[in-house]
Design brief:
heterodimer, A: alpha/beta, Mannitol-specific EII, Chain A, five-stranded mixed beta sheet, B: alpha/beta, Rossmann fold, four-stranded parallel beta sheet, 36% helix, globular
């Protein structure tokens, strides 16, 4: 199961690029010992080759993740951005998407993560859920919603 | 000759396993458990391309394949009905397999 808690909920984040944002989010996970320092490189590498921007509604999200190497504990780091950051579209790498929320997943592949992915994808398909996530005021509520949605 | 559906993604947590899971579930509902479904990394696709009947890709596909290619993105971001529609589309292709 993915670890989802307040420590990994980042609100009002400012970043000028997907790269910068990914580094920032990985630093949080590294500080909590979920990942090793080199894991950020696999996430960045994957984002370069196979971008993770998703054209969801009412606004776009991104799902950066790397190979399951250098991960101590499976976790989700969530960032809500002050201003949108550009990610390339997973389905069309030439297209820029203005992303408002980022779900960075680290997986140590100790278990089957399909259920969590399935729940995450259900949320991506429901614009009301994404809208709610955008409006929640504090980290606790955000963590709770993510937890209830993804770990049910 | 067994048929095979390949679901491909970029890397990492294997979003393709999501597609694989949903396709298997639907095949089972339709009594088509004879069809194999596997997930692979797009970077390894050459090893599989001569042995696949339908390719479902989570990423953009930049080249032609011998078999029909379908975007698996709705499995990740589609509404319930968009997901169903994609499964319907795949089942149509399955029905045309010889």
């Amino acid at each position: 199961m993915f670890r989802i808690d307040e420590d990994f909920v980042l609100l009002d984040v400012e970043a000028t690029s997907a790269d910068e944002l990914i580094r920032f989010m990985c630093k949080e996970l590294e500080a909590a010992d979920c990942i090793q320092p080199e894991h950020v490189d696999t996430v960045l590498e994957r984002e370069q080759k196979f971008p993770t921007g998703l054209p969801t509604k009412p606004f776009c999200v991104a799902l950066p993740h790397g190979e399951p190497h250098g991960v101590n504990e499976s976790a989700l780091c969530f960032a809500r951005l002050k201003k949108p950051v550009v990610f390339k579209n997973m389905g069309n790498a030439c297209e820029d998407l203005d992303v408002r929320m980022v779900f960075l997943l680290v997986n140590n592949s100790s278990e089957n993560q399909v259920e969590a992915l399935r729940n995450l994808s259900e949320m991506f398909g429901e614009s009301e859920k994404l809208s709610t996530l955008a409006l929640l005021e504090n980290k606790k509520d955000v963590a709770k919603m993510l937890s209830n949605t993804i770990l049910k | 000759m067994g048929y095979r559906i390949v679901v491909a993604c970029g890397a990492g947590i294997n979003t393709s396993t999501l597609g694989e899971d949903m396709i298997r579930e639907r095949l089972s509902k339709e009594g088509r458990e004879d069809i194999e479904v596997i997930h692979v990394l797009m970077s390894n696709i050459e090893a599989y391309e001569d042995n696949m009947d339908i390719l479902v890709s989570m990423q953009q596909v930049y080249r032609e394949f011998k078999c029909p290619v379908v975007s698996g993105l709705p499995f990740l971001i589609g509404t319930k009905s968009e997901k169903e529609a994609l499964l319907d589309k795949i089942m149509e292709l399955v029905k045309n397999l010889k």
